[in-house]
């Protein structure tokens, strides 16, 4: 595979993004959303940049999804006017920040507990405002969310008339798809992702309650769950870059991966061991989202796919190589990470390249915005 970085020196480590591959990934998902007639609301935790948010909006995204209020605040300052915070908002300080955002932009969030719903309701009602909410349904990840069907429907009916909130839909995220060991399991998880919401919506319907949004999304499942009739919104995140986890799952071929880490060999202390300057503070210790089956090391070295990034300390990547590999101290290597999202969160900027060389530098404005 061709290298992204065309010269033989660089101030490493760097996070490189290939512009052409990024645009192809963005276009592909936008075309899917249009053809499937679903709204595209990408999760911005993957890129955390104003520039990619803008590129997504230019391709028809109705807004973005984020996990944290801090990410939403950064994106709102840069002109993003429609943001779903797909995370339970709990506690007075968070409610105050949510209100401040709701006074500037169109903002929505999720609920999955009575305590959370009541606190949100009384806070917004006390300000004579209403906030749009989705009920979070657990389609199998076993993280947040009500069980699909009766439990989720009963909860939704209970909170639907609370003052200060406006129920707009049901939402789920099939993150457990990352643990799928076979393509047919992925397909089943994706179908269940949509079903979990549609079955719940059908029960609500029988009880006379309609919800307008049925929101699904994880990159491995989205093209299946997003084409089930009745689904109205998709929230893929990782698709902008893809990574070795997506390759392992068969979602895309390696050539579609748009993000690489450029690192330099700083030592070859033994014939079968090199050390690079991309350690845990660059590559992250996360070996892959919600499942590491089939993933080896911390990513793939493009020129030496058989080499294994065995260990990371904070600033050292320890790689097992073949004694025959002609790697020297000072060489530049490109790594496709197992999980692109935490890599971006550790970087100050994304170095944007195209086939002619350096094109731009994009600041990771929502880096570390975990509050
Ligand atoms: C609630 C929610 N929606 C959407 C996504 C996007 O998932 P992916 O990065 O697999 O596309 C995530 C990922 O963490 C999520 O937590």
From TrEMBL:
Pfam families: Ala_racemase_N, D-ser_dehydrat. InterPro entries: Ala_racemase_N, D-amino_acid_metab_enzyme, D-ser_dehydrat-like_dom, D-ser_dehydrat-like_sf, PLP-binding_barrel. It is an enzyme of class 5 (isomerase). It comes from the Bacteria. Keywords: Isomerase, Lyase. SUPFAM superfamilies: PLP-binding barrel. Transmembrane segments: none annotated. GO terms for molecular function: alanine racemase activity. Its EC number is 5.1.1.1. Residues 258-354 form the D-serine dehydratase-like domain. Belongs to the DSD1 family. PANTHER family: D-SERINE DEHYDRATASE, ZGC:162816-RELATED. This is Alanine racemase. It comes from Effusibacillus consociatus.
